Every structure is written in C-alpha cells, then in structure tokens.
Amino acid sequence: MSDLPEPMPAGYRSQAVTKADAQAVHRLVTVCEHELLGRAVTGFDRVAADLGAPAGEPAPDTVLVRDSKGRPVGWVWVKGRRARVHVHPEHRGRGLGRSLLDWAEARAGRSGADRLSQSVSDSDEAARSLLRSSGYFPLVTEWLLAIAMPVEPEVPKPPSGIRVRPFRPGDERAAYEVTEDAFDEWQSRRQTYEEWARRTVERASFEPGASPVAFAGDRMVGVVLSIDVPGSDEGYVERVAVRNDHRTRGIARMLLRQTFRTFYDRGKRACTLWTHTDTGALSFYEGIGMTVRRSATVYSKILTTGEQPAVPARR
Ligand SMILES: CC(C)(COP(=O)(O)OP(=O)(O)OC[C@H]1O[C@@H](n2cnc3c(N)ncnc32)[C@H](O)[C@@H]1OP(=O)(O)O)[C@@H](O)C(=O)NCCC(=O)NCCS
Q1: How many helices (H) and strands (E) does the chain have?
Q2: Looking at domain 13-113, which CATH architecture does it have?
C-alpha cells in the first residue's frame, strides 16, 4: 500500500511532510480554528513537536494535501491510536476529510493499533457527522476550562512541610516522573521521556517562570507546567500533577493559583487548560474557580473487526 492517501479527490495531491512544512501546516490548522472557534488556539511549536522527524526527513505519521495551485488545504496526523485531521474551510464537502480519515485508519492498523480516536470540537457538526457515519462512537468528553483574572489572584500558603519554587533546569526528569506517574492512573500508555519532553519542557513556548514545582524535603511532589503561547493574551497550563501520597492537601490548588498570579503579573488576564472525563478532575478545577469555556468529544473506532463493543473500551 502507498504511504500516501489514494485516490485523492480530483484536483488535489498529497505529499509526505517534513519539518520544512511546519509553517504551512500551522497556518492551515489556525485557519480551521479561526473558522470554528473565532481564534487560533494551537501554537506553532505544538505542530513542530508533532512533526517529530529529524530535519529533512519525512515524518512517517503525517500527510499534507495541496490543491492544484500548491496551496495546503488538508492535513492528517496519526500516532498510535490517536489521529488529527484538518481540512481548509473552503475545501470541505469534496471528500478530502474521508480520504484522510481512511488513510489514518489504514496507517494506524498497519502499525498495530486496534482502534483509532480523535478529538473533535462539539461545535464542529461536519466533523462529528463524518466520524459518526464512518463508524466512530463517542468515548470521552474533554473540557477547556478558563479562569478570568480581572484582579491579582491570591495564592494560599504552601501546606506545612511543602516548599515551592519555579521550575529550573535539572527538574526535567523529576517532573517527568511526577506527571507520568500521576497520568498513568488513567492513560493507556506511558509516554517515553523524549515524547513527554517534546510536548512540554522542550517547547519553545514552555514557561519555567510560570511552572511552579512543590517539594517535600528534596522530593518533588507536585508540578504545574505552563506554556506562554506567542501572541496570546491568556496563559496556558499544559500539565498538573501531584504525587498520590500528597493529594488533597491543597498542593495543586496552591500551584495553580501561583501560576495564575505569575501570568497575571505578566499582563495576562485569563488562564486556560484542558481536562477530560478520565482524569476525574473537572470538579477540582471548578472548585478553584475555573469554568468550562467549550467542550470536545473523543470519537473512537475499533479497527480490527469493524464491530463496536457493547461497552466502549477506554483509550
Ligand atoms: C487532580 C490533582 C492534580 C489534584 O491534586 P491535589 O493536590 O490533590 O488537589 P488539592 O489538594 O489542591 O485539591 C483542592 C480541592 O479540590 C478537591 N479535589 C482534589 N482532587 C479532586 C478531584 N479529582 N475531584 C474533585 N475534587 C478534588 C480537594 O479535596 C480540595 O477540596 P477542598 O477545597 O474542599 O479542600 C491530582 O489528583 C492528580 O495529580 N491527579 C492525577 C493527574 C491528573 O489527572 N491531573 C489533571 C490532568 S488535567
């Protein structure tokens, strides 16, 4: 089977993607986000991180579609059980989304995945209907939570025996252990250090100053990792985790409120983060004053038999 989707709808051609295409892919993603959400939400370095191949080499997991004038109009990314598909708003309704989805399923199947999932904004009717008609079922709800900061956020004192300071070089491995140990409570596969670092501390927009870490003695027990998305007037929290033997002592609330304060001091007047059904943390975030701004649904499809289970499997 070809490594590119085929056949493509008339007038379009697909190509492998290298790091040199990252700007084109990012522009395409942000055009789609503007159309759907009224603002760009994906930073350039997130796209660059997804195109993880060394410079010059085609990334094995992505395909870019161009129209007859060479303009980028569609993109698919698939890794393990997860996929993302974007089609330029002016090129919808021509079968591009289905071609890219078919390719993602074939690609995931060949790499041994038994199911494929993708997250779609609940306001994206076209994508939801494509997925439903392609055999996908809703699996998990994701929420974008936000907190407005019209005045300087107050920061509670650390619980007794807990010391807090901003993230600094050398904290990477301990922060990886704390966040991945905590996320292992619900995630299906632990990320390697390299995967984790590419999406967090190695991003150009990672903001150590707004990423407080908590210690009990010399052991890191809590961490918030933040992103300062270029051009955004909002701070973004990428990871929150507290070691399970230090839970419900107020450590996460204190770290998050410290993060909000730091972003406030830098002129931001809101902070956002994503959470989802599996974390069970929605009411925790609501309890510290965050509210749901929008939601998305993870749709999933079983690839091996084509039959859907009576009780949907977790991701
Ligand atoms: C979610 C998490 C970060 C909370 O950390 P924590 O340090 O225990 O939270 P805090 O002690 O600051 O909790 C503050 C308040 O929220 C409550 N709370 C904590 N976790 C909660 C949860 N999962 N659901 C509902 N309430 C919760 C606490 O009881 C406390 O309530 P109080 O104000 O009445 O005292 C932690 O459970 C964790 O690391 N989970 C695994 C990783 C994860 O899912 N992270 C979030 C990814 S989006």
Answers
A1: 8, 12
A2: 3-Layer(aba) Sandwich (3.40)
